[in-house]
């Protein structure tokens, strides 16, 4: 897997219904999106399906050169941040980042994406 770069932002992307559909097929442009995004950020993918499943997805879709790791979905997290309803805004204050990811999945990757 790709070695994380401490100078880049790190994001975690869920697998099921985000990268692949319920039949195990990649959503249109999802793999391309991850490849492009990996040039700007560290990517870890995770799934409630567990560690082995997440790693199998990395292998099946040839993502080993683009993601830094594959993880099971955490059952619990411990952090100094309070849980908030707007989780994404708390972790990613630049809301355009989230919308840009959605745009990338639609095949409209913008060169001027501003990340964190």
Which short descriptors sum up this protein?
116 residues; 4 helices; Rossmann fold; alpha/beta
Description of the molecule:
The protein has one domain: 3-Layer(aba) Sandwich (Rossmann fold). A 3-stranded parallel sheet has the order 1-2-3. It has 116 residues and is of the alpha/beta class. The protein contains 4 helices and 3 strands; from the N terminus they run βαβαβαα.
Can you lay out the helices and strands and say which pair or pack?
Layout: E1 10-14, H1 30-37, E2 42-47, H2 51-60, E3 69-72, H3 87-91, H4 96-105
Parallel strand pairs: 1-2, 2-3
What is the count of DSSP helices, taking H or I runs of 4+ residues? 4
The CATH topology is what?
Rossmann fold
Q: How many DSSP-defined strands?
A: 3
The helix content, as a percent range, equals: 25-40%
Rough outline: globular
What is the structural class?
alpha/beta
Proportion in β-strands: 5-15%
Rg over alpha carbons: 14 Å
In summary, what is this structure?
With 116 residues, the protein is an alpha/beta fold. It has helices at residues 30-37, 51-60, 87-91, 96-105, and strands at residues 10-14, 42-47, 69-72.
């Amino acid at each position: 897997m790709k070695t994380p770069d401490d100078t880049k932002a790190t994001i975690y992307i869920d697998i099921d219904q985000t990268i692949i559909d319920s039949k195990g097929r990649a959503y249109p442009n999802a793999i391309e999106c991850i490849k492009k995004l990996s040039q700007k950020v560290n990517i870890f993918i995770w799934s409630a399906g567990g560690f082995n499943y997440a790693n199998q997805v990395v292998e099946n879709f040839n993502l080993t050169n683009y993601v830094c790791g594959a993880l099971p979905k955490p059952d619990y997290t411990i952090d100094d941040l309070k849980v908030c309803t707007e989780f994404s805004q708390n972790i990613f204050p630049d809301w355009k980042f989230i919308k840009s990811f959605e745009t990338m999945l639609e095949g409209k990757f913008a060169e001027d994406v501003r990340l964190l």
